[in-house]
From TrEMBL, chain A:
It comes from Ceratodon purpureus (Fire moss). The keyword Cell cycle applies. Residues 214-233 have a biased composition (Acidic residues). Keywords: Cell cycle, Cell division, Mitosis, Ubl conjugation pathway. Residues 199-268 are annotated as: Disordered. Residues 603-858 form the Cullin family profile domain. PROSITE patterns: CULLIN_2 (PS50069). It holds the Pfam family TPR_ANAPC2. InterPro entries: ANAPC2, ANAPC2_C, Cullin-like_AB, Cullin_homology, Cullin_homology_sf, TPR_ANAPC2, WH-like_DNA-bd_sf, WH_DNA-bd_sf. This is Anaphase-promoting complex subunit 2. GO terms for biological process: cell division; metaphase/anaphase transition of mitotic cell cycle; protein K11-linked ubiquitination; ubiquitin-dependent protein catabolic process. Belongs to the cullin family.
TrEMBL record, chain B:
PANTHER family: RING BOX. GO terms for molecular function: cullin family protein binding; ubiquitin protein ligase activity; zinc ion binding. Pfam families: zf-ANAPC11. Its main location: nucleus. Belongs to the RING-box family. One of its GO terms (cellular component) is anaphase-promoting complex. InterPro entries: RING-box_E3_Ubiquitin_Ligase, RING-H2_APC11, Znf_RING, Znf_RING/FYVE/PHD. Gene3D superfamilies: Zinc/RING finger domain, C3HC4 (zinc finger). Keywords: Cell cycle, Cell division, Metal-binding, Mitosis, Nucleus, Ubl conjugation pathway, Zinc, Zinc-finger. This is Anaphase-promoting complex subunit 11.
From TrEMBL, chain C:
The lineage of its organism: Eukaryota, Viridiplantae, Streptophyta, Embryophyta, Bryophyta. This is UBC core domain-containing protein. It comes from Ceratodon purpureus (Fire moss). SUPFAM superfamilies: UBC-like. It comes from the Eukaryota. The keyword Nucleotide-binding applies. Accepts the ubiquitin from the E1 complex and catalyzes its covalent attachment to other proteins. GO terms for molecular function: ATP binding; transferase activity.
Amino acid sequence: MGENLAMAMADSAASSAFANLSAVTQAWQLYVLRASAMLRLGSSQPSSPPVVDTEFDASVRVLCEQGLASLVVSYFLDALEKAFKQHEVANLWQQLDEYSRLKEDDADDPGKLNEWVQYTLPKVLSEISSAKLAQEESLRMLTRLIYHGTAGQAVEVERFLSQYHTAVSALLLTSAPQHFPEILNLFFKVRLEQFSKAVRQRNRKPPSGGPSGDSEDDASEGSENNNGEDDEMESMRSSHCTSADDMEINENPSENRETKQVDDTDEARDMEGVDFVAVSHLKLNAGAATMQEVAAVAGEEWVGGVSSVICNLRHIGFAALSEEGYASAIYSLLKAKIHAITNKRYEKPVLASVRSWIEAVPLRFLSIILASSGPPSSKSSSLTFPSPLASISIPSTGVDEIVKEGVVRWRLRLHFFAYETLGDMRINELFDIIVDYPESLPAIEDLRQCLTNTRHHAKLVDSFRTALRQRLLTAGAATTDILLQYVSTIKALRTMDPTGVVLEAVGEPIKEYLRGRKDTIRCIVTMLTDDTGGGGMAGLGGVGESLFEELSRGVSSLENVDSDDDAELDGDEAWAAAERWEPDPIEADPSRTSKSRRLMDIISMLVGIYGSKELFVNEYRVMLAEKLLNKSDYDTDRDIRTLELLKLRFGENNMHGCEIMLKDLADSKRINTNIKAAVAAELSQHGLAVPATSSDSVPLAGDAGYRTPTATVGLVDSHSQATFMQTPGSQTGDIASADGDRKLPLDVLEATIISSLFWPPFQAETLKVPAVVEGLLEEYAQRFHTIKAPRKLQWRKNLGTVKLELQFEDRSAQFVVSPMHAAIIMHFENQTRWTATELAEAVGVPVITLRRRIMLWVNQGVLVESHTVKDGDTVYNIVETMGDAGARAGGGAPSTDAALPLLGDEERESAVASMEDQWQQEMNVYESYVIGMLTNFDSLPLDRIHNMLKMFVSDPPYDKTLQQLQGFLGRLVGEEKLEFREGVYRRRQM
Amino acid sequence: MKVKILQWHAVASWTWDAHDDACGICRMAFDGCCPDCKMPGDDCPLMWGACNHAFHLHCILKWVNSQSPRPQCPMCRRDWKFRGD
Amino acid sequence: MSSSGYGQKEKVLSRIAANRLQKELTEWQVNAPCGFKHKVTDSLQRWIIEVHGAPNTLYEGEQFHLQVDFPEHYPMEAPQVIFMQVPPMHPHIYSNGHICLDILYDSWSPAMTVSSICISILSMLSSSTVKARPPDDDRYVRNCRNGRSPKETRWWFHDDKV
């Protein structure tokens, strides 16, 4: 400054010829002296207006006369800045430094820190603001002095003030410690929470008188009170009504506030998300009113506190910093609210409440802040020393406009933030939301609204596909469950995204996976046709039922799906359709038409898993064929009903083959009856009685002797199973009677006669049936020919089911098996030992087939397998007594087991039981493993259990075959420990 | 061991005892049905001529009716008579 | 002469006819009669068939076109078969394309097929010893000028050998 002065004086000297050099020097010295004194005074007593003394006045005048005005001002500014820096700024940061210490010391008790911030921040801000104000006043005074009477006085004053303001702001900003924004944030956070709480309590008071909320008042201010959150949100909805009423009043003053009731349309309007334009319009008229309302809720002191902090911050140039502070406080509170209210609950819509809450809390809070911020150029508000409420009591129109605009901006911002936060949350939870469908519809509707605003569809697709991969499309999931989830997904996503684009994107992996599962078609058909409603497991009933209903609706839309023209619409409809048209979203797969995307209903989507309805129908036909061929009672009532529904759906022509298949069953039944009647008639004609033994000894499934219902054997596939049936009552004299007569009565034979052209092609399997059976078949065919000439029969000997009883010396057992299994075992009647080669020859099948199929009898303990020494051929021996069975088991089991059956040998029944016991003991080891697995995985198919046992069970090592395991699991099902449905086992729910 | 068959539920397909596979008139399989029918078998039977040529009943009737008074067998042009008449 | 003039009483094929023609077409595609080629059209009711004169006959190397129109009740009724321009010079083939061949008219049997018709026509051509129009060609063609179908003609058939 000294240099500047020297130079300035040199300039002056040049012009005024050193005349008044000493006077100038003297004036300068005086000026500097007075100025410093004034500034010191100002800083110590900020509230007193600066005193202008004559000496100062005179010195400035002298200096100005010498053309040193600019020098005077710049010195003054410099001095102001220096003084501000030394005293005020240092003081400010020093006071706030306490924060770091408190934060560390009282990490466990944020209340103390909060209290400190609430007390200190307003105090120090007010101090520094006053200091600045005082300095401004002195600067103003100086400039007035200098430029008094000149035309540019006002301009100059402003110029220097703004110069000063910039300098001071820069000073503060550059020196602000790192924790300052943190302090601001904390301040606003606490204030906002206080306000939020005040609103909550106010809403709670009217009905109950409000004493219940008192305990909460004691809770520390900053701590989260999750119990209250929902409550608050709930009450917000009613509070929103209050504010809505307020708004209405502004619009229609004639309306009576007290009688106005919340109605559904308000809510509905709210849900639509379009209301906020209207609301904001109404709200804007109410700037001052809102503030008074806020004051009424939170207390004037609270309002004053916030307001003055905002004013002061803005005054010292921290407007941006303070906005950051309150914005982040608002965002984090909003986020916390959304998380608290939405957490894992999907059955209630939350967006409307969130929006109401935004109106009620953050926007009201903001209106205070915005009002306090004032217009940037308004000097009146910053010049006066306002009482805390001053800005509220005199809202100038200018301020009101600012508030209005600000609120609109903030509303949009907060809404978007809410959409984004809620949307992202829901996107992450979408899988669970869909699991809960349709209870979760409100959540889906919320998500739809969020997506409309955020356009985060791609994010949704990615996230949901990942969830599907991890949680649904795994080997452990039952096909039915996958299908149910798929159906729910279809329904839910359709609600959310009517264009169908998202569904298309997420549906593809599900479809692909389902196509790979063998039982998918069966499950779909079961779901489509299950009219029993609650017949399924928990949750199945609902969707299954609705699918059945959907099918029953008989929508023929499927027929139209392929055609993409609107030809079938008449003029009006076509016009309406054209009006509705919207371009496909950009994410859409252009290879599909939008019409097909929209028209597809749920059944079409399920059917679409197979690519086309033709493929689906074909799959169904194969499935039906398998099912019908394994029937032994001709009962097709259910299948006929199913078919009728499918015909409505897929058209009669497509289901024609199936219809003939079912008719074949009915015809077969009639023909069978006719043939049997003819036999009976002949016998009675010849004076012979119908042999009663055979018909009497065919027990029905419901007979008392059966513990498990008869399971028929899958003939077309190779996984044959047999149900072991204990028949305590059947050890009668039948053996002797059957023994003597090698001819079987025709009554034993029943036939399903098919119109082969209309059935799916069968696996051609040659099979030679034993002569007794062959004789029966010939006789039956002959009788058919007699009735139906000139038609004749061609036997498909490998198809069908055989129910037979094996009668051993010490036991007997019944089985339902395929004809090949029957043929195999019948050969052991007369010859107890067969090599695989010989037996294959006798049965007329390749050796490899024989070896595979014969395992059923080996696993049932009826045959034992060994190898000849000579040529290594496999040899099978009949296990005539349980002693032999023990020998069989002796290979892997301890010798004590072999002795077991001998104990109960005297009584045949118990012998059968003990054989079972023995087998049980071997398998019991695995029960706990199986139960454990099914607890973890919910449900598993047979082969997975088998593989897992192989992998995990080493002591004793798991060495059972798939069939043995199946038998064992079947027993656990019988004991009601497990359930078996749709190809998977699961734990039985108690 | 004795095996006692309690029930043998067998499967057979029926077929018309004719020399040809398909009807000479409609060219559809005998074991199927003529184009006018939906159900094969009893509902759409075969008919033999004296010349031993077989047709779907519905097919040969249409032809015979259109050719009266002197219909011929579509296959061999002999005068058509129903077998067994 | 417009070859399509004969289609005046075209009716949609019955289901039986459509069904059978579909089968015949499939069969044709698998096993077409030697010397014939079905020209693909979008109509099942009218077939255009290319005929190649058999080797070692008068028509060797020549190429003709048959137009076969099927009636609603095919095969209970015979199809209308004519040669498109220019028809082969043959004592039983008129210059307007009409063919004097019994199986196309009175001797039709529903057991016949397009394939068997084609073979009959080819054999008729092959057995010809002279390339000439029928003696009554002028008179017949004049009578048919208003677009009459050959099926409306009361034919009486000359001997089988040419």
